[in-house]
Design a protein that fits this description.
Radius of gyration: 24 Å
Helix content: 40-55%
InterPro entries: Bac_GSPG_pilin, N_methyl_site, PilE-like, Pilin-like
Number of domains: 1
Largest sheet: 4 strands, antiparallel
Number of strands: 4
Order of helices and strands: HEEEE
Number of helices: 1
Protein name: Prepilin-type N-terminal cleavage/methylation domain-containing protein
GO cellular component, one term: type II protein secretion system complex
Keywords: Membrane, Methylation, Transmembrane, Transmembrane helix
Strand content: 15-25%
Structural class: alpha+beta
Distance between the termini: 70 Å
Strand order of the largest sheet: 1-2-3-4
Pfam families: ComP_DUS (PF16732), N_methyl (PF07963)
Shape: rod-shaped
Length: about 120
């Protein structure tokens, strides 16, 4: 009797089923980590923009308009400088992906952060 080497079709199907179950469990967790990383990146860009606004204020005794500072670009968030006058500004980051509890982040010159649970 000769002995054959290799896997049976049943063994391959079981291995494939186990791999599929592991992928189904892992993907949502991975997506959550990616979303958190994008949110952290947006917060970092807003804080850097806030620092640039304060530096501009020290030089010119007013806050910069949107065209006077380099506004960051991201494939996940749209950044803007809004509501600017001599003593006030508001920075915002809006997610390109609609929905979610942290789809819009704002930061003012008084370090008011909205929504608070996203900071």
């Amino acid at each position: 009797m000769t002995r054959s080497f290799g896997f049976t079709l049943l063994e391959l199907m079981i291995a494939l089923a186990i791999s599929a179950i592991l992928a189904i469990v892992a993907v949502p967790g991975y997506q959550h980590i990616i979303e958190q990383a994008n949110l952290n990146n947006a917060r970092l860009h807003l804080l850097a923009l806030q620092s640039a606004q304060e530096s501009f204020y020290l030089k010119f005794e007013r806050y910069a308009e949107a065209h006077e500072l380099p506004v960051p670009h991201s494939k996940h968030y749209i950044f803007a400088i809004t509501a600017v006058d001599k003593n006030y500004y508001q920075l915002s980051a809006r997610s390109r992906k609609p929905g979610g509890r942290c789809a819009q982040l704002t930061l003012t010159q008084k370090l008011q952060k909205q929504p608070e649970e996203c900071w």
